[in-house]
Amino acid sequence: MAELDQINENILRELGRDGRMSNLDLAARVGLSPSACLRRVQELERRGVILGYRARIDPGARGAGFIAYVAVGLSQHTKSSLEAFERAVARAPQVTECHNITGGIEYLLRVEVADIAAYKTFHTDILGALPQVNSVTSYVVLGSPKDSRA
Are 83 and 134 in a shared domain? Predict the structure, then answer.
């Protein structure tokens, strides 16, 4: 994929801050005419640089005020073991992110639940019930001074 020029980088930065802004406002912020700005946004969408738009939701406002990042190690490193784990995690609504990573473990999960009791249930009944899981290390989020996820 071709590199992005500075104008496209500015468009992406502005849309990352507010994906709902009008094309007119976006054009003014990046110094383009509205028609040129729209063409660039459509091209970024067509090329797959912009994958979509989503709302940022406060987990606490929807009753999921307990957030943990969970490092998961698997007992087997086979394709079927990884696929089975990923299918199980995809069915767990508590898991809002699942990343296959390098290092001493295979996965890093973001888990959002109501409280510590709900997390214990998730930890025991979902992760603890998966035969592929060998190790689980939980990191409880105390605060998020910077969170720029869309």
Answer: yes
